[in-house]
Amino acid sequence: MATQQPTDLRTEYASNPLGIDEPAPDLRWQVETDRTGARQTAFRVLVASSEAKLDDDAADVWDTGKRESDRPAVTYDGPTLEAGTDYYWKVRVWDGETESEWSEPAMWGMGLAADDWEASWIRRPGEADGEFERGQFSYVRREFSLEGEVERARAYVAACHQYELSVNGRQVDRGQSFSYPDYHYYKTVDVTDALEAGENAVGGLFTWNGEGQGRPTAEPGFICQLHVELADGSERTVVTDENWQLREAEWDEDAPIRNGEIADPVEIIDGREVPFGWDEPGFDDADWDSAAVVGVHPTDPWERLITQEREVVGSWVEPESVTELESGSLVFDFGRVYSGLPVVNFEDGTEGHRVDMLAGYLLEEDGTVDDEEGTQWTDMRYGYVQREGRCTFIPFNYLGVRYFQIDDPGEDLGLEDVSLWALRNEVPDEHAATFDSSNETVDAVFELARHSVLYGSQEQFIDTPTREKGQFLMDAFNISRATNRAFDERTLTRQAVEEFVRSHYRYWEEEGRLNAVYPNGDGKRDIPDFTEAFAEWVWRYYRTSGDRGILETAYPVVQAVADYVDRNIDDETGLVTNLSGGEGGPYHEGIVDWPPEMRYGYDRDWPARTTVNVLGTSAFGRAADIAAELDRPDDEVEGYRERQETLEAAINEHLLVDGRYVDGCDAESASDHASQHANAFPLAFGLVPDEAVDEIADYVADQGMRMGPMMVPWLCEALETTDRIDTLVDLLTDAESDGWANILAQDGTFTWETWHCRSPELPDDHRKNRSESHAMGATVLVSIQRALLGVRFRDLEAAHVEIRPPASGLSSASGTVPTERGTVDVSWERAGDGALSVDVTVPWNTDGTVSLPVADGHATLTVDGDTVWTADGTEARPDGVVAVERGTDRVDVDVEPGRYQFVLE
To answer: Are 151 and 272 members of one domain?
Structure first.
């Protein structure tokens, strides 16, 4: 039987990326098959300068030849790749002596080299003195003629901060470049189909917000270089320069900003000022200004342009209902909170009539949209001045939106007239991970988490789509964990890790730290706990993705972080003491959890804090792991491991008091408070002495939920690793106590910053300063996959997966988990008589271990109807079963790739 052809070809983790800078890109593939034992033993990759040359089976760029390998990936090591050039590739694989068909072709495009830029940065005239209007929107345009049919066309474009690129009346791209100007992003856009022989027009609408969270200090500017190849072999390049025309857009630049964090303006748009046809040939731009030229790139302040490999995409969401209030205002409900742009179509606008609008998460008692709670006092207003007749309101900057109120619309509006353009980071499949179980609340929590991390991922991992759109390190770590497992996401995580690496070199190279949020407008600001956790993030991402390049990039910073922790170890106790960082604010020496009410009384008044010390062991341990993976010298690896073990010993000596981990200590005494944080962290990181594990796990479990959404992943891992599955299910489903079920019970539709967002116990000003759209709490999705569905990764790139249904907690569960080698599909059910049936699909090229809980009365295990184990010791090996091992409470069956049905009776 022929091996099925490879599919899902990816270059640098993306499908057919148009612009990459990587000189040696990583190429990956999968094979979709459930044939028992199907695996790769060898591969061959061809790379060519055109798809036609691939068809000849004689690639003109690179041919790996047949290479013996079970890894479905290869790093390009052929001739030097040329900037601005497209490459095509395909792959075939072998399973033993069986050869597959060639895959369908894939491609990638190289970005521009530094000296390929001919375009200039342009902006409004009169801004040379450095006085820039915050929240400005500008149109730029250029017309040109092409003498012949277009064969290929690429636009290389960037703006500070955002842009929409249009060609011949059609928007072809939207980009965000919230980055420092000395390390700025640009995108490569295919505009082949948008251009035509004869007259053409290209233009951009770009905006500059000013500095804020996630928006560093910079200057307004726009750059575009359009390269066109014609069918006759000739080429044409159009660049931004003094020949481009510019005018202010229809946004009111005197509008207030929404808050002091993001600097987005309240969008008040005058529909009468829209320059219809501005991006089409023949438009009259005689009253526009000539764009001011800052200089040909590179020019101050833009020193470097790098390709932006992630993408923001949109989809339409229709409202579920509309309510008319006594005032005549209309309130539309989109069902749950999305990050996006509310859009209103008016059929019969009145010239000069202003329509005021308001977005929000909650309703007041009178049905109006609440303008304070849930959104942290962000000014969520909009304004639109109508023109005569048909007109459309559409803003530029996204916000979190559930309810949308329209005051005095001037006409009847129905559900068909209002919609939401929901924005999110592009992922391979937003429904790659699925989950369904015997408990509806657990299912609802999974969906809550999936939705939250999907829309908490924009141009970067965001704190919240309302007040702070910045990328906080710990938030990003949490969201990334979920997006990796839920959507098979890679590129946004890699970008985030690389950005925090750059934060170290920009601000902290001497101190060994990283920024708490990056990029950002307030410069050098750190949170010690976040810095400590960085190596854990890098390692977990690597284990999931196999992205060796990120290890090489991050390792010097991981080393610096380990040294930073080491410098803060007290000689007398051996503990991390008064960990430097977060000076002058609420982040001093570490935050434990966030917001403050989520510390649940953690005793922070000690120089050595337990949570800080446990994270310190992770910094050392992961430095050792990464060093070993990169084949660093043995003494380097052993040095980090020794530091880890020494710190673990000090923790157990000084902070483990009377069978509990206390919150902190000094050389003479220790806290008398033993928080859930202080005990869950050691369990999650595996440093509790064996004889103390059960007692401490019981102590943690008995406290219920006493950790916040930021640090709750460690609580979930503590319960998972100690097999307290019933407690985990209780945390997920208790609607009366703090947690996800309580959010759902209060009609929350996005994970919250704190379990207490609507708690009357919080002071009114605190409650209004808490966000109901924080994706950092959505890592529970990973815990559901691992502990309740039972899918765990044992090896790099999930080359070995474990399917481990829990012994209790649920009576059934089914779902899918994406991996680098394919999708793990699991369905298990426990019958009333105790019998357990499990259906499993282990992906191609993957080893599997199915670990089943054995209870009293279980006497027989069958696989696809064949008996493989009985209580009296009988064993057999049907097709696909490699080994069977019986433990005290489980039976483990090692299997090859394929689809299996297990029945334990």
So the answer is: yes
